[in-house]
Design goal:
Beta Polymerase, domain 2, two-stranded antiparallel sheet, 9 helices
Protein backbone atom coordinates (compact mmCIF):
# COMPACT_ATOMS: atom_id res chain seq x y z
CA UNK A 1 0.00 0.00 0.00
CA UNK A 2 2.72 2.51 1.01
CA UNK A 3 6.30 1.88 0.00
CA UNK A 4 8.13 0.24 2.86
CA UNK A 5 10.98 2.76 2.91
CA UNK A 6 8.53 5.64 3.47
CA UNK A 7 6.78 3.66 6.18
CA UNK A 8 10.05 2.72 7.94
CA UNK A 9 11.15 6.36 8.05
CA UNK A 10 7.70 7.44 9.26
CA UNK A 11 7.79 4.84 12.05
CA UNK A 12 11.15 6.15 13.29
CA UNK A 13 9.43 9.51 13.92
CA UNK A 14 6.04 8.27 15.14
CA UNK A 15 7.58 5.74 17.55
CA UNK A 16 9.60 8.59 19.08
CA UNK A 17 6.49 10.81 19.32
CA UNK A 18 4.67 7.95 21.09
CA UNK A 19 7.64 7.40 23.40
CA UNK A 20 7.66 11.09 24.38
CA UNK A 21 3.87 11.05 24.80
CA UNK A 22 3.36 13.68 22.09
CA UNK A 23 -0.11 13.47 20.48
CA UNK A 24 0.20 13.32 16.68
CA UNK A 25 -1.76 12.41 13.58
CA UNK A 26 -0.57 11.63 10.05
CA UNK A 27 -2.29 13.51 7.25
CA UNK A 28 -1.34 14.48 3.71
CA UNK A 29 -0.69 11.96 0.98
CA UNK A 30 0.08 9.06 3.33
CA UNK A 31 -3.37 9.32 4.96
CA UNK A 32 -5.06 9.76 1.60
CA UNK A 33 -3.28 6.64 0.26
CA UNK A 34 -4.51 4.63 3.27
CA UNK A 35 -8.10 5.88 2.81
CA UNK A 36 -8.11 6.35 -0.96
CA UNK A 37 -6.06 5.67 -4.05
CA UNK A 38 -2.50 4.39 -4.30
CA UNK A 39 0.10 6.91 -5.46
CA UNK A 40 3.74 7.65 -4.79
CA UNK A 41 4.67 9.99 -1.97
CA UNK A 42 7.98 11.76 -1.39
CA UNK A 43 7.23 12.96 2.12
CA UNK A 44 4.93 12.50 5.08
CA UNK A 45 2.88 15.21 6.82
CA UNK A 46 2.37 14.92 10.58
CA UNK A 47 0.42 17.22 12.90
CA UNK A 48 2.16 16.92 16.29
CA UNK A 49 1.39 18.84 19.46
CA UNK A 50 5.02 19.27 20.61
CA UNK A 51 5.56 21.45 23.70
CA UNK A 52 8.71 23.63 24.07
CA UNK A 53 10.17 21.39 26.82
CA UNK A 54 9.84 18.34 24.53
CA UNK A 55 12.01 19.76 21.73
CA UNK A 56 15.41 18.75 23.19
CA UNK A 57 14.48 15.08 23.88
CA UNK A 58 12.75 14.93 20.46
CA UNK A 59 15.85 16.20 18.63
CA UNK A 60 18.18 13.95 20.61
CA UNK A 61 16.01 10.93 19.75
CA UNK A 62 16.32 11.75 16.04
CA UNK A 63 19.90 12.89 15.72
CA UNK A 64 21.54 9.71 14.44
CA UNK A 65 19.08 9.21 11.60
CA UNK A 66 17.78 12.67 10.65
CA UNK A 67 18.89 16.17 9.85
CA UNK A 68 17.01 18.15 12.53
CA UNK A 69 17.78 21.80 13.38
CA UNK A 70 16.95 22.21 17.08
CA UNK A 71 16.76 26.02 16.96
CA UNK A 72 14.43 25.95 13.93
CA UNK A 73 12.23 23.34 15.63
CA UNK A 74 12.09 25.37 18.86
CA UNK A 75 10.98 28.45 16.90
CA UNK A 76 8.34 26.46 14.98
CA UNK A 77 6.97 25.05 18.26
CA UNK A 78 6.81 28.50 19.87
CA UNK A 79 5.17 30.08 16.78
CA UNK A 80 2.88 27.04 16.24
CA UNK A 81 4.32 26.81 12.72
CA UNK A 82 5.98 23.89 10.94
CA UNK A 83 9.42 22.36 10.34
CA UNK A 84 10.89 19.46 8.45
CA UNK A 85 13.22 16.57 9.10
CA UNK A 86 15.36 14.88 6.43
CA UNK A 87 16.23 11.21 6.81
CA UNK A 88 19.97 10.92 6.08
CA UNK A 89 20.09 7.59 4.28
CA UNK A 90 16.96 7.95 2.10
CA UNK A 91 16.56 11.78 1.91
CA UNK A 92 12.88 11.16 2.69
CA UNK A 93 11.27 14.29 4.15
CA UNK A 94 8.99 14.46 7.18
CA UNK A 95 6.99 17.71 7.50
CA UNK A 96 5.73 18.39 11.02
CA UNK A 97 2.98 20.96 11.67
CA UNK A 98 1.94 22.31 15.05
CA UNK A 99 -1.82 22.43 15.71
CA UNK A 100 -2.84 26.08 15.40
CA UNK A 101 -5.31 25.98 18.28
CA UNK A 102 -8.37 26.12 16.00
CA UNK A 103 -11.26 23.79 16.89
CA UNK A 104 -10.61 21.84 13.67
CA UNK A 105 -6.98 21.14 14.67
CA UNK A 106 -8.13 19.67 17.98
CA UNK A 107 -10.84 17.73 16.15
CA UNK A 108 -8.23 16.08 13.90
CA UNK A 109 -6.33 14.81 16.95
CA UNK A 110 -9.51 13.75 18.79
CA UNK A 111 -10.85 11.73 15.82
CA UNK A 112 -7.58 10.12 14.74
CA UNK A 113 -7.64 6.43 13.86
CA UNK A 114 -5.17 3.72 14.74
CA UNK A 115 -3.74 1.86 11.73
CA UNK A 116 -1.65 -1.32 12.04
CA UNK A 117 1.37 -1.20 9.72
CA UNK A 118 4.77 -2.78 9.11
CA UNK A 119 5.81 -6.19 7.76
CA UNK A 120 3.85 -8.12 10.39
CA UNK A 121 1.34 -5.27 10.86
CA UNK A 122 2.64 -5.23 14.41
CA UNK A 123 3.21 -1.48 14.65
CA UNK A 124 0.68 1.27 15.07
CA UNK A 125 0.44 4.73 13.57
CA UNK A 126 -2.27 7.35 14.08
CA UNK A 127 -3.88 8.71 10.91
CA UNK A 128 -6.57 11.26 10.11
CA UNK A 129 -10.12 9.98 9.69
CA UNK A 130 -11.26 9.86 6.05
CA UNK A 131 -13.47 12.93 6.61
CA UNK A 132 -10.61 14.93 8.12
CA UNK A 133 -8.28 13.97 5.23
CA UNK A 134 -10.86 15.37 2.79
CA UNK A 135 -11.34 18.56 4.83
CA UNK A 136 -7.61 19.17 5.33
CA UNK A 137 -6.93 18.58 1.62
CA UNK A 138 -9.80 20.88 0.59
CA UNK A 139 -8.23 23.57 2.78
CA UNK A 140 -4.75 23.00 1.27
CA UNK A 141 -6.27 23.00 -2.22
CA UNK A 142 -7.87 26.42 -1.55
CA UNK A 143 -4.73 27.85 0.07
CA UNK A 144 -2.70 26.67 -2.95
CA UNK A 145 -4.87 28.63 -5.37
CA UNK A 146 -7.07 25.64 -6.32
CA UNK A 147 -4.63 24.47 -9.01
CA UNK A 148 -3.16 21.23 -7.64
CA UNK A 149 -4.53 18.31 -9.66
CA UNK A 150 -2.82 15.91 -7.28
CA UNK A 151 -4.63 17.35 -4.24
CA UNK A 152 -7.97 17.24 -6.09
CA UNK A 153 -7.35 13.60 -7.18
CA UNK A 154 -6.55 12.71 -3.55
CA UNK A 155 -9.81 14.33 -2.39
CA UNK A 156 -11.88 12.47 -5.01
CA UNK A 157 -9.96 9.23 -4.32
CA UNK A 158 -10.85 9.28 -0.61
CA UNK A 159 -14.47 10.31 -1.28
CA UNK A 160 -14.89 7.54 -3.85
CA UNK A 161 -13.19 4.78 -1.83
CA UNK A 162 -14.88 5.66 1.46
CA UNK A 163 -18.23 6.98 0.21
CA UNK A 164 -20.40 4.34 1.88
CA UNK A 165 -18.75 5.04 5.25
CA UNK A 166 -18.45 8.84 5.15
CA UNK A 167 -20.21 11.08 7.65
CA UNK A 168 -21.42 13.65 5.10
CA UNK A 169 -23.13 15.82 7.75
CA UNK A 170 -19.77 16.13 9.58
CA UNK A 171 -18.03 16.96 6.28
CA UNK A 172 -20.55 19.69 5.47
CA UNK A 173 -20.44 21.18 8.97
CA UNK A 174 -16.65 21.52 9.05
CA UNK A 175 -16.34 22.51 5.37
CA UNK A 176 -18.59 25.47 6.23
CA UNK A 177 -16.43 26.35 9.22
CA UNK A 178 -13.19 26.09 7.15
CA UNK A 179 -14.61 28.14 4.26
CA UNK A 180 -14.45 25.27 1.75
CA UNK A 181 -18.15 24.29 1.57
CA UNK A 182 -18.31 25.19 -2.15
CA UNK A 183 -15.31 22.98 -2.93
CA UNK A 184 -16.81 20.07 -0.99
CA UNK A 185 -20.08 20.34 -2.94
CA UNK A 186 -18.14 20.45 -6.24
CA UNK A 187 -16.22 17.30 -5.25
CA UNK A 188 -19.38 15.46 -4.13
CA UNK A 189 -21.13 16.45 -7.37
CA UNK A 190 -18.13 15.28 -9.45
CA UNK A 191 -18.30 11.96 -7.61
CA UNK A 192 -22.03 11.56 -8.25
CA UNK A 193 -21.66 12.54 -11.93
CA UNK A 194 -18.90 9.95 -12.45
CA UNK A 195 -20.76 7.11 -10.67
CA UNK A 196 -22.48 4.57 -12.92
CA UNK A 197 -26.22 5.24 -12.80
Amino acid sequence: MINSEAMQVTLLVTNLLDELDIPYVIGGSMASIIHGMLRTTMDVDIVADIQPEQVAPFVSGLQDAFYADEQMIQQAVERRGSFNLIHFSTMFKVDIFMPKGRPFDQQQLDRRLSEQVGPERGQQIWILSAEDVVLAKLEWFRLGGEVSERQWRDILGVLKTQQAELDVAYLRQWAQSLGVADLLETALKELTDSSPQ
